[in-house]
Structure formats: C-alpha cells, structure tokens
Write a structure and sequence with these properties.
The complex is a heterodimer of chains A (about 400) and B (about 230). Chain A has about 400 residues and is α+β, with helices and mostly antiparallel strands. Chain A folds into two domains: about 270 residues, BirA Bifunctional Protein, domain 2 (2-Layer Sandwich); about 50 residues, no CATH class. In chain A, the strands form two sheets. In chain A, strands 1-5-6-12-11-10-7-9-8 form a nine-stranded mixed sheet. Chain A is globular. Chain A starts with 5 loop residues before the first helix and ends in a 10-residue tail after the last helix. In chain A, about 35% of the residues are buried. Chain B folds into two domains: about 120 residues, Periplasmic binding protein-like II (D-Maltodextrin-Binding Protein, domain 2, 3-Layer(aba) Sandwich); about 100 residues, 3-Layer(aba) Sandwich (D-Maltodextrin-Binding Protein, domain 2). Helices cover about 35% and strands about 30% of the residues of chain B. Chain B contains nine helices and twelve strands. In chain B, helix 2 crosses helix 3. The longest helix of chain B has 15 residues. Classes of the chains: A alpha+beta (about 400), B alpha/beta (about 230). At the A-B interface, helix 3, helix 7, helix 10 and helix 11 of A face helix 4, helix 5 and strand 9 of B.
C-alpha cells in the first residue's frame, strides 16, 4: 500500500504515545534527529552491505547525502554537535522513520521505510547497570504498548574478545580470528589452520618470503631493495614499513607454534554455549577457571549485568544466552539483545534489539572514548505494517 | 516494444560486441536487417519469424532484460550479472557465445608485495582504516559484482568509489587504492603496475544470449539457441 491507512496511522501514534513516555521517564531527552544525513559517516561506519540498501543522493550544492538508514548514528551526531563535553552522560530517545531498501518478493513493491522508537545512553556510567537498564526499558516500552508473547535472546561480544586475549597467541592471530568471527565457516577454517601446525599452502608471495628469509636483510631494507629492482613506487596510501611489517609477520607465522588442543578447546567450549543465562554463568566460570586473565573479568561483568537485571525485576529464566549471538552485528562491542516473536506469516520476527557500541562515538569524531548503549523497537512491525526490513 | 506476440531480441548497437554478434548470427544463417525509421534502432531476422530486433547499448540490454522491455538479449555476462544477480529468477543465460572474453578481477598495486589474496586485502583494509581513518577505496563500475564477491569472501572494510572510465588509473591517481575491473590480456594492468589477486577472479565473462524466464520455453528461442550453438 502506498502509505499508511488512517487506522495504521492512529495505531502508530498510539504506540508512540505509549512507549516514548517510558523512555522519557528514564531521563531521556526526546529529540528529532535530521532525516537527511551526510552520507559519509554511514558509508565509513557501515560499509557496502548497508550502502547497497541506503538511499543516497547529491544535494544541489554537490554534497553527498542519504536518508538515514538508522537513528543511532543520527542520535550520535546530534549528541556530538550539541553536547559541550561528549563524554558527559546524556540520554536521548526518538520516534521516527528509518529508510532501508528491502527488495520485496517478485512483483511486490520493496519496503523502503519503517518506523522506529529508540533510546541511546552516552557517556561513562555503570556498564552492567546501563546494559540491564536498556533491556528493562525495552521490555517496559513493549509492555506499555501491550506487546507480549516474545522471546529474548542475549549475547556478549566482550566475552569473545576477552577470551581471545586470555589465550596465548600472537596479536595478529587474535585480529584475524576477530575479523572472521562474523563468518562461522571461515572462522572454523581459520581456527583449524592456526591449530594444524602445518605450513600454509604456498601462495603467490611464498617465493618472496623465501627470498627475504635467505637474504638476511632487515624487512624494510629487503622491501626497498625489491621495489627498486622492479622499479616500483609505493603507492595507494601504504608505506614500505607497513608492507615490510606484514611480510615479517608472515615469516614469523612459519615458525610460530600452532594453537594447542587445549586452546582451541576453550574457543569451541565457549562458542557452544546456548542456554538460560544462569546456566551459562556456570559454564563461563568453568572456562574462566582454565584461562584466568581478562576473560575472568569479562565473566564478572556478565554476572554483574545479570544481577542488575534481577534487581530491575527481569525474569532471567525467560531469556536465552547464546555465545555466538551478535556475530552478524558488526558495530556492537559488548552486551547485545534481540526480541523476537512469531510474525503474521508464522516466521520469527525481530521486533526490538540493541546493545553496547563503545567505539562508535570515537570513530565518528568524539575525539575521545565515549561508551554508548542503546535500543530500537520496530514500531512498524508492532502495528503490522512493513513485514520486512528494519533490523536494529 | 511492440503490440504483436513477437519476442524482442536486443542486440548491441555498436562496437566490437555488435560486429561479433552480427558475424555469429550470419554464420548461423540469420541475416539481421534494419526496419522502421532511418535511424535504425529496430530490425528483424530474415528467416526467423516471431522475433523482432532492438539495437541497444550492451549495458542497456541487461537493464532491458531486467525491466522486461525486451525478452532476449546478447550482452556481456559481466553486464548481465552486474544488473541481474545469479539468484534472481527474472532472466538467465541461454547460451554462452564464445566471443568477447573478459575477466572481472580484483587488482592491487604491484608494490603491495605482502598482498597475494583477498584474505591479505582484508587485513590491509583494517590497517588502512587504522592509519587513515577512512576505508580502503575500491574503484569500479561493477558495484554489485564487487559487493557480492567481497561479501562471499568476508571482506568488509572497504568502500566503493564509482568509476566510469580509466579505472585502472585510479590507484596511481590517488582516487582509490585498489580496483575491480575487466581485463583480457592483462597488459593495461601491467602498464599501470597493478597485479591480480590469486583468488581475485570474480567472473570469467564472455558474450551470452540471455532470456527472460517466460521466454525461455518458447520454441523460437530453442530454435535460435540450436542454430547459434552450431555457429560458435
């Protein structure tokens, strides 16, 4: 339908009128970020998978703009431009449209816009408490809207990060594992490769590495010599030092002892956890007993968050924790959650979600570390409009 | 494109692709004649009833197949797949025609001695963001092919810069770091001091006869396919 009917419009107004006051009562300023946003910040943050779904255009004066594909980044920008010190605690809530191209089934109009209600908490606070509060506010807003009969899944990307740091391996291996975390199959392959103890298959640059090893030269000197012999200039934003550094790492990998069975076992055991949060705690403690280090600290935070949820009156037994949850959500850094219910077609439908994204504000220009955690509720789906599109 | 029940076949209106397509149709015993106005954007195939011909640019042909303004078309597979994803049922390849070969590839500066494969590129993209505060830029006209290929390979930290010509010059000019482009002999890449990643072949393209789903089962299409196949 090209627009909302009178009934749908009233339903959305009623929904917003029920939910927004819940968020305001938690101290959030009710703002209206711009619909038209500079494209750059979204393209740099989110990459091509979002760009292919974002409505991009050029303003009459040549500026690259877009219709906001979410409200989180616009709220961040609002905060950065209006706060005198972006690190000072601030809370915002909003209700408005986001725009993402979601191709419909053959012959159907694509879904292009959907309604969201959300909240963002910026600035250093009590991490465990703020995480729990964001989930509690989501559930309170849904309750105010008369929504029930949903499932709650929670995850914690900080645990995985901490686990890797508690396992002895080169930092470059951690970075590679982290980068592949979003892709379960590639992650398995990489883990197998790092634990196999076999030399990697030879690649187009294996011969170069042999040469470098035999030359006895320092990596930088070797690269300089090689470039000169080929009459090549270093171009495209990289330096001789960076190229030499990566080659040196590749050489190191040849002699690096592989991950042990105990080490990969820790990763496997962690990724296998999918159960009620309170059972998860015991299993996480078991792993922390084997690793110690920063992972134990991350488990402490996990437990403190559960405790804060209990104190907020949330029913932990109604939730599921999954270690792999959050894999597909690139910008989150810690606690993540998602609320689903059965949609009109019987398939599971995501109606709300959110989590912690502590690196975003620094990335888009805060000039310092500013923790952030937020929630988004898919209002369109609650009124039965716009069946697809609209992830948090 | 017409009121009759004829199918419309789009043929390239210019360039090497046009010459090769016409030569092939001639070998198959099909003479293509222009009809209608003197500007000659329409035609028919002598000896093959039921098909009208429209002359379009190769890139328009893929779009016209997607929109349904034509039923059949001869175009480069690169342009077809850029416009219509392999999993999109709207149109598909009927016959690979064996001319117009071109590989769509990922190429990086030769001086990036440490980069052999897409996995290296992913790491360099991370390093690049940390150094420059913006993403590694990929110059290309193949936005969709690039996105699909990098998504399959788990490469995320890049950004596309749309390039409509002389793509291979972008890294040296500083408008992008790497490119996705077509190459036939590799000599242009070499001249620009670029190298293809060892797993950087996105598509081995050639000219194809493609058809919309509904047209595929028509006897006239089977006939056309058969005779063209013998002329490859």
């Amino acid at each position: 339908m090209p627009g909302k009917s009178s009934d749908q419009r009233r339903a959305l107004d009623a929904l917003n009128a029920a939910m927004v006051p819940v968020l305001e009562a938690a101290g959030a300023e009710f703002i209206d970020p711009d619909i038209i946003q500079p494209a750059d910040v979204f393209l740099e943050r989110s990459g091509e998978h979002i760009r292919s779904r974002t409505y991009l255009f050029t303003s009459p004066d040549g500026e690259e703009l877009c219709l906001r594909p979410d409200l989180t980044v616009p709220a961040c920008r609002y905060h950065l431009e209006s706060a005198t010190d972006p690190a000072q605690p601030a809370r915002y809530c909003y209700a408005g449209k986001a725009f993402r191209h979601t191709p419909g089934e053959a012959g159907r109009t694509p879904v292009r816009e959907f309604d969201q209600v959300g909240l963002e908490i910026f600035g250093a606070g009590n991490t465990a408490h703020d995480d729990a509060e964001v989930l509690a506010l989501t559930l309170a807003a849904l309750k105010a809207a008369g929504v029930s009969g949903y499932r709650i899944e929670i995850g914690d990307l900080g645990l995985f990060d901490a686990l890797l740091h508690s396992i002895d391996m080169p930092e470059r291996w951690r970075n590679r594992l982290k980068r592949q975390f979003w892709r379960p199959r590639a992650f398995r392959d990489l883990l197998r490769q790092l634990s196999a103890g076999k030399r990697k298959a030879r690649t187009a640059i294996s011969g170069l590495l042999d040469e470098m090893e035999d030359s006895g030269l320092e990596p930088v000197a070797f690269v300089e010599q090689h470039l000169e012999a080929l009459d090549l200039q270093m171009i495209a934003g990289r330096t001789v030092e960076q190229v030499a550094g990566r080659l040196a790492e590749k050489l190191l990998d040849r002699s690096q002892p592989p991950l042990t069975a105990e080490q990969t076992g820790l990763i496997d055991d962690y990724l296998a956890i999918r159960c009620a949060p309170e059972d998860a705690t015991a299993r996480l403690r078991g792993i922390a007993g084997r690793t110690g280090g920063v992972f134990a600290g991350a488990v402490d935070l996990f437990e403190a968050r559960l405790q804060a949820m209990r104190e907020a009156g949330l029913d932990l037994a109604a939730m599921e924790f999954a270690a792999v949850f959050g894999r597909s959500l690139e910008y989150y850094t810690g606690f993540v959650f998602q609320i689903e219910r059965d949609g009109p077609d019987g398939a599971s439908q995501n109606i709300a979600g959110g989590g912690r994204y502590d690196t975003m504000l620094a990335d888009i220009g805060a000039g310092q570390h500013v923790p952030a955690v937020g929630l988004a509720i898919q209002a369109s789906r609650l009124i039965g409009d716009g069946g697809s599109g609209g992830e948090a | 494109m017409n009121g009759s029940s004829n199918l419309t076949l789009a043929l390239p209106s210019k360039g090497r692709l046009r010459e090769a397509a016409e030569a092939m149709f001639a070998r198959a015993g099909f003479e293509i004649v222009k009809t209608g106005s003197a500007r000659g954007y329409q035609g028919e195939i002598k000896g093959l009833n039921g098909i009208d011909v429209a002359f379009l640019s190769a890139s328009e042909i893929a779009k016209a197949l997607k929109d349904g303004t034509v039923d059949l078309g001869v175009t480069g597979e690169d342009l077809l797949r850029e416009t219509i994803a392999p999993d999109n049922p709207v149109a598909d390849v009927v016959l690979r025609l064996g001319f117009g070969p071109a590989d769509v590839i990922v190429a990086v500066p030769e001086s990036w001695l440490d980069v052999a494969a897409v996995a290296d590129l992913d790491q360099v993209a991370g390093e690049f963001y940390a150094t420059h505060g913006h993403r590694l830029r990929v110059a290309t006209k193949y936005l969709e092919l690039t996105r699909r290929f990098f998504a399959e390979h788990g490469m995320t930290g890049y950004r596309i810069v749309e390039s409509l010509g002389a793509t291979e010059g972008a890294p040296a000019a500083g408008s992008a770091e790497i490119i996705v482009d077509i190459t036939t002999t590799g000599s242009t890449l070499k001249a620009n001091r670029l190298k293809v990643l060892e797993d950087g072949l996105i598509l081995r393209s050639e000219a194809v006869l493609a058809a919309r789903r509904q047209a595929m089962a028509k006897p006239v299409v089977a006939n056309l396919r058969q005779r063209l196949e013998l002329a490859i």
